[in-house]
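Rotation project, supervised by the postdoc (A.L.). Task for the rotation student: set up a whole-complex structure prediction and record inputs and outputs verbatim in this book. Inputs entered:
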Amino acid sequence: MDLKHKLEALLFVSAKPMAVKQLAEFTEAAEEEVREACHELTVDYKDSGRGMTLIENGGKFQMVTAPEAADTVAKMVKVETSGELSRPSLEALTIIAYRGPISKTDLDRIRGVNCSLIIRNLLLRGLIEAKEGSEDDGTHYNVSFDFLKFLGLGSVEDLPDFARLHMDTTVDEALADEEPLENPVI
Amino acid sequence: MDLKHKLEALLFVSAKPMAVKQLAEFTEAAEEEVREACHELTVDYKDSGRGMTLIENGGKFQMVTAPEAADTVAKMVKVETSGELSRPSLEALTIIAYRGPISKTDLDRIRGVNCSLIIRNLLLRGLIEAKEGSEDDGTHYNVSFDFLKFLGLGSVEDLPDFARLHMDTTVDEALADEEPLENPVI
Amino acid sequence: MEITLEKFEGPLALLLKLIEADELDITTVSLAKTADQFVTYIKENKDIDPEEIADFLVVAAKLLLIKSRALLPFLYPAEDVEADDFEKQIKMYKEFLEAAKVVDKLAAGNRKMFGREFTKASWLQREAGFFPPPNASASTLAMIFEDVLARLKPAEKLGQSTIEDHINIDDKISHARQLLAGKVNFFFSDFIKHAKSKTEVIVGFLAILELMRQREVIIEQLSLFGEMEVKQFPIIN
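Outputs recorded:
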């Protein structure tokens, strides 16, 4: 793969602006080459009317949607952030409310499925917040203050039956009971 | 902006698999047109050796980095260390990939052994997904987008020998003739 | 011959390994030949997961049936549909084993694809967006959490007792020996009268076949599907 398309892959994946220096490091190319290739890519995108474009700011490049696609994207954002929550999403939100702060791994194990996409959606809607933990502790999730306010509560402890449900040992037993997965995680 | 590039913008921003149905809604196009445009986009990407590609699974599309960029992107992205797949897990995963959607009963029959724990672990790891069926149809399993990304496949149909193993009549005969296993244990 | 089996590999994997160790093709004949080795493996490998043992016994029973048909064809005049199906099943399983190797190779090929990182900022103009769902209320949450607890609770216990009930072939053999200690014969139907599951019947049958192999008993069946009479092996001077 040529430099231009390696850069394209990196800029696509990164949600943040990327410094030319970093890009040069990951692609093992000279900074000048990187800058040049990024400019070429920008021109390519414009010429072929693509859905994305590159913007340059203070020596950093970022891939963003083309301004012409703004309306379409806005429609998607609106639909994805409004409306009712699905049952699985409500369940994840509930577990985070009664058991937070909780790690993704524990949430996955309680629900029995991988909850990555659900967590994203709850984050996007501002219903939960991520708290970066230490290295081996990982990210933990809590319901947001906005969401508590929306429910008319001052804190999670005001949730119905909080003391009993929060302390219920079933969850701890289920998490502890868990058979060790084969080969760390299969 | 034409449909193809609107879709490109949506798939870029969403950063997750999007259903054809939703994409059609956001772009105000017919589902068939959307599917076609996504396929065209995939071919465009491949032909010009771009850093991204589209993958397809169960009526959804996701924009991901091209497999050729794997080494470069891996330098930037923290690759989750989820451990190797054990042989039995790999076997079950393969059967689900080729024969999905498949019920647990049919999977058990093909492997000749109860696969409950393996299914559970694959679900937690996000490599397969469960789809609840109707009352007498039961839960069926499919491989996920993460599975395709893990192998670098555009869709399950790109698996070697897919058509033959997917359609293999011996499977159907063997399963049809088999008396229902009375789920010996668990 | 050393054959090792990983947890969850299951009886078909064992069977294929046995057949391949003998460099045989998958045919009814090779299945019949493998029956004894298969049973011996189960007996000698006490570390087969108790949760899996029933699955192994089901296959053992099929193999022994195929073997007995091969040895005593006149007892089974009908076409051997079951053996053919079983043969097909093994072949199909083997195909998927091959496919799994290919999948493993793909995974090792480092052609991983990556999705885009998710951040709120990449979706929203202002990060501070808050979009409450109309269907979430404090009482709904409490109700759902009760559901979650209920779902987590019973799951474990069920499995345990079923396993305890499951059935040891040695026990069945001793039971059969006991029955024969006092008399010269008994009916198979009496032997399995108290069986609680199909598996237990199969294990009972396996026990009798094993005793037959060890020349402790003979079986007589006067008509097709008729009652089987289990007798002490005649002592001939």
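Student's summary: DSSP finds ten helices and six strands in chain B.
Supervisor addendum: Chain B touches chain C through 63 residues (CB under 8 Å).
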